[in-house]
Specification:
This protein is an alpha/beta fold. The chain has 10 helices and 8 strands. The chain has a single domain, classed as Rossmann fold (3-Layer(aba) Sandwich). β7 and β8 form a beta hairpin.
Amino acid sequence: MSVDLSGKAAVVTGSGRGLGKAYAKALAAAGADVVVNDVDADAAHETVAEIEAAGGRATSVVAPVGSAETADALVAAAVEAFGGLDILVANAGVLRDRVLWKTSDEDFDLVVETHLRGAFTTGRAAAVHMRERAAGGRIILIGSPAGQHGNFGQTSYAAAKAGIVAMARTWSLELARAGITVNAVVPTAITAMTATIPLYAPVAEAFERGEQLPKVVRQDHALGGPEDVAGLVVWLASDAATGVTGQAIGIGGDKLFLYSHPTEVAVNFHEGGWDAQGVAAAWESTFAPHAQSSGISLPPLEL
């Protein structure tokens, strides 16, 4: 089934390279007009040029996300160039990976400002416009496995990405009556960032050479190219996904999967309440077998 986004306008933040660029190009290939956003002017203009060379329409806004001013400028650019905004993909982000005791205030604030506040301000601006326009809409926020599981050395990134999924679930409730769906995509792909992980350096090098990735990489590790993720974004942006909202959906390589909402896995009651000794006893008898592990668990990678 083909997906036709003709007549739709999209904003994709952080779309000068990597996953964001793949989203922007895929949306344009499906017929959408695209506002490309990045802090790197050359990268943003290159994405616009590639979309136009393929027969699509695009314009760029070069600015860091986070501020209300940038968010308003992105919506205004879509309105001015294409007559309105139907789709927002909040993808922009930065990394400042450090263990907790080495994380500075400045690094923490930058990551949260870009990922979490950037998704908030652009999502808010898009929602205001879409509600006033009364034609529905699609808001797609980009999460991360780190936000779902935690990840060593990624305090700020994991916290921001977890917050993004929580915002998507909340907004799906608040915007339902306006016909606006809100979902979180949790992607995994071979990018410049992935290439810095020692485990995946040989995989990234092989991918860069154009070699076919083995099944263990594409399925067990859910790693392919950015283009392998873009199809989910295009589908969520389309009328075919009208009934899908408030979901966190993972994708990468050959793997497509749905994350559960947090749920109670074990329950106990004690009439009159709990003291510390009662909690200790209940923990051993009822809760310890259900304790959840932290961190991203990956299968062995033998190439």
